[in-house]
Amino acid sequence: MTRHLLRDDDLTPAEQAEILDLALELKADRWSLRPLAGPQTVAVIFDKSSTRTRVSFAVGIADLGGIPLIISTANSQLGGKETPADTARVMERQVAAIVWRTYAQAGLEEMARGTRVPVVNALSDDFHPCQLLADLLTIREHKGELKGLTLAFFGDGRSNMAHSYMLACVTAGMHVRVAAPENYTPRADVVADAERRAAETGGSLTLFTDGDQAAAGADVIVTDTWVSMGKEEEKLERIRDLGAYKVTPDTMSQADRDAIFIHCLPADRGYEVDAAVIDGPQSVVWDEAENRLHAQKALLVWLLRQNGTAAQVAA
Ligand code: CP
Ligand code: NVA
């Protein structure tokens, strides 16, 4: 069966650790692996806007010896005349992997069912697993071993980022806290999946409505935009509802003295985070943005190895 990355818990704890190890190796020696030399092409499809994901996949595929084919759905048949399954059948005969940023998780699942090449979720309404690989790499670089660390997320607990922190961090054996108002609490099925995974790894998930309790002693403080792509019509309502969950210097003062601040970006300074925090000494957001490159290269190498789709992949 072809391996894909559609959500964070598609990776076992051991697989996640293997990819992070490989990412560190590739970061230290950027052009050491060229599994896409040939060159082979990787399709990178965008239904939504992007800066980091577009740049890091394009550069990463080139680093691996391949050619990135960046497709905007506005100019393709996908999303209009053609289904994800038919698109996948067309593409698999020509590309080594398909990376897709889209709305519905169901579309990614359909794409993955329809193809023998790996499909990577480059952000959906539900999850952002590529971002989490970069975030875990960043946390590991700054804090050492992931297992046992506490990460506190503030804001929209139903967002793709909150769900991905829950699944990916408990997979790494971390303790995850989500601070969100009652009508923005994480989806029950994702909570259940995170709790199941946490029981295997020794991690944990705790939901809070009180931000101060969530911040207390945390090693990593994180937030995300209050207005995710596709939610623009709810902007005013969200600013009102989520205002109490802004990450401020006071939030950071309640966390561990050596806590770091991360944010997937783009950020709305003054809304979900104060400029004094994101531009302050505890913020590692630029390392985090760079790590998208290294983490995704490792992911692609790993998927190609798993699926045996690249004859020249180094063992
Ligand atoms: N963090 C992230 O995915 O950024 P982009 O939307 O710019 O790709
Ligand atoms: N939650 C945000 C993440 C952007 C990278 C969104 O979906 O817009």
Brief overview:
By secondary structure, the protein is α/β, with parallel strands linked by helices.
Descriptive key words:
five-stranded parallel beta sheet; 42% helix; globular; binds phosphoric acid mono(formamide)ester; binds norvaline
What's the tally of helices? 12
Helix content: 40-55%
How many strands appear in the DSSP assignment? Answer: 9
Q: Name the strands of the widest sheet in spatial order.
A: 7-6-5-8-9
Which residues form runs of ≥5 with pLDDT under 50? 310-315
Can you put this structure into words, describing what you see?
The chain has 315 residues and is an alpha/beta fold. Helices cover 42% and strands 14% of the residues. It has helices at 13-28, 52-63, 84-91, 105-113, 129-143, 160-171, 188-201, 211-215, 235-242, 249-254, 275-278, 285-307, and strands spanning 41-46, 67-72, 97-101, 119-121, 150-154, 175-179, 204-208, 220-223, 260-263. The strands form two sheets. Strands 7-6-5-8-9 form a five-stranded parallel sheet. A four-stranded parallel sheet has the order 2-1-3-4, sandwiched between helices. It comes from Microbacterium kribbense. This is Ornithine carbamoyltransferase. Its EC number is 2.1.3.3.
